[in-house]
Amino acid sequence: MRDWVELVVDALREIQGHKLRSLLTLSGIVFGAASVVSMTSLAAAMKTLVYDDLIAMGLSRSFFMDDQGPRSDAKGAAALRHTGMRLTDLEALRALPGVASVHGRNWGEEQVVNAPADRRRVRIDGVDAGYLELRNWRIVAGRSIRPLDVTNRARVAVLGEEMSHNLFANTDPVGKTITIDGVRFLVVGIVAPIEFDIIPADFSFVGRRIYIPYTYITRYTKGEGRVDEALVTASQAARFGDVLRRGTALVRQRHGGTEDFTIDNQAAEVLSNLAMADNILGGWNAVMFTIAGVTLIVGGIGL
Questions:
Q1: Chain centroid offset of residue 103 CA
Q2: What pLDDT score was predicted for residue 288?
Q3: 88, 76 in Cβ contact below 8 A?
Q4: What is the arithmetic mean of pLDDT over 3-24?
Q5: Using N-to-C axis directions, what is the helix angle for 240-254 and 87-94, rounded to 10°?
Q6: Contacts of residue 255, Cβ cutoff 8 Å, sequence gap at least 6
Q7: Is 199 within 8 Å of 55 (Cβ atoms)?
Q8: How far apart (Å, rounded) are the C-alpha atoms in residues 128 and 24?
Q9: For the whole model, what pTM was predicted?
Q10: pLDDT digits (tens, 9 = 90+) for 36-78
Q11: H or E stretch including 139?
């Protein structure tokens, strides 16, 4: 016990006799410890932000089923046997166990759009009710496409934010009308691209398009109940694999065994991006911990 007392007394005597050196040493230790804590917190925060961005950008429980059916230039019996994706396929997919939602979509073409401030060719996309929300594309004014709009093939439109400024200048477009290829549509909302904290992904195309019910394009452009794409989302991540297998088998069976569709596995892509981000952040952590450790050691030795 006496030895410990003597050590403490000697240490206090040294601190009092070398005030500047003691202050510098203490400052080094404090700043070194603070750097370790700061680097650890920064790494954890960056990891959270990157993960949130990837989840928001991707569809972690979803896959696209894209139509590869017969086209107007199809040649041969084999090509003509492909029925292609249809509205009835979407209904069948919705009935599968473990499916949370199935959204239809039609890839529109550029069409002439007339509005009070401009007349131009604009890409028109057909989407299902809830599709914009599922993709995390923000409705910044008015409303989105509703189920009743899809059922009734309503002539309503949601403008991209940039396109809204082009067609209506500084005027609020909600409640006003535009003409698409000579047909009048009521503007019901404005959609803006998703925004990210860290990932430099560009979704600016969202703001340059116009979105209408996909069933309108099916009825008046494609005909025969044709659909370009189905976005299938599983109710739980654990059931995604089963939903993917069942959905693929179901559509193949309904189409007589023909491969007239392709699968775009968004969930696998999200997992791959998360793994890549984990590896990159692991490297950053090693570098930051090294810097913090050196700072702490230097402070402990004394300047």
A1: 16
A2: 67
A3: no
A4: 68
A5: 140
A6: 82, 83, 261
A7: no
A8: 66
A9: 0.76
A10: 677 667 767 766 776 676 666 657 889 999 998 765 555 555 5
A11: strand 138-142
Residue type, 105: R
Q: State how far the Cα of 174 lies from the Cα of 207, in Å rounded to an integer.
A: 15
pLDDT at res. 218: 94
Tokens standing for residue 186: 């009521």
Structural element, H or E, at residue 178:
strand 177-180
Burial of 55 (0-12, 13-18, 19+ CB in 10 A): middle
The SS3 call for residue 21 is helix
Residue with tokens 């007239």: 260
At 116 the pLDDT is: 92
Rama region for 140: left / alpha / beta (φ>0; ψ in -120 to 50; rest):
alpha
One-letter amino acid at 168 equals F
Closest CA to 155 of 114, 183, 195, 192: 183
What are the beta bridge partners of residue 110? Answer: 123
